[in-house]
C-alpha cells in the first residue's frame, strides 16, 4: 500500500504571503484521490517528533530557541518565517511524518511525505523556509534505532542540500548526494559527499544523462540499506526560483530512474517532496503527482 504522510497543519500556520506555493500540500492528495490512485486509507496523520529525537540532529540550544519562540530576530529572518508555536508544531509533524513514512517504506518498499525536504536547516540554524531537517532527523533516528547502518540521501532539488551536508559532514554512515543548480540559493554552499553543480539552463538530455551515469555506481559503491529521496520539482523550466530547463516529462523520468534503482537493489526509500515554485500551481501539482504515479506503477 502506498502510504503518504499528510496533515492540514502543513499549510495553515503559514503567513498569507507563503500560502500559494504551499497549496500543493492540499492539492496533491486531492488530485491523487480524484484519479483514484489512492484512497483516504493511504493517508496518515503524523504525530509530533520528540525533543530527544530532534536533538540527535539539531543542537539543543537551537531547538529550545525554536520551542520557546526566543530565536533571535536575525535568525528568524534567515528562515523566511515569523516564528510561532503553530509553525514549530508544523515542523515537528513534518519530521515525524518522515520518520513514520520510513517504517512504511520498510514494509512496502516506498513511502512518502507530502511535505518535507527541509534540507536547508543545519545543526543550529534554520534557512530558506526550513527550521528542522526532516530527512536528517530521520536518518539519525534510523541509525540510533539500529534500523539502518548505511544511508544514502539523494537530493535532486534545484537548491543544494546545504543543511543536510553540514549535519552529516563527519558521519561516515550517511552519504549525501546533491545535484543542483550551481547559481541557485544557497549562495554559500556546504560540502556534500558528492555535489554535482549544474549550469543555468541545463535541459532534459544533459540532466538525465548525468544522473544515469552517476547514481548506479554510487549505489554499488555505498551499498546503502536505506535511501532518502528529495524529489523537488523546482528543476522545471517553468519554476520562478530555479534556473534549470527541465520538462515535466524529464522530471518524471528522473523520478522513475531513481525509484527503479531502489527497486533493482531492493532498498527501501522514503520520499519527501521538496521545492516547486512555478507560477501556475498546476505545473507544480502535476509534476509532484508524477512522482506518486511512478511509485504506484513500480511498487504496487
TrEMBL record:
This is Acetoin utilization deacetylase AcuC-like enzyme. Belongs to the histone deacetylase family. It comes from Mucilaginibacter frigoritolerans. It comes from the Bacteria. Keywords: Hydrolase. One of its GO terms (biological process) is epigenetic regulation of gene expression. GO terms for molecular function: histone deacetylase activity; hydrolase activity. It holds the Pfam family Hist_deacetyl. InterPro entries: HDAC_classIV (IPR044150), HDACs (IPR000286), His_deacetylse_dom (IPR023801), His_deacetylse_dom_sf (IPR037138), Ureohydrolase_dom_sf (IPR023696). Residues 20-290 form the Histone deacetylase domain. The lineage of its organism: Bacteria, Pseudomonadati, Bacteroidota, Sphingobacteriia, Sphingobacteriales.
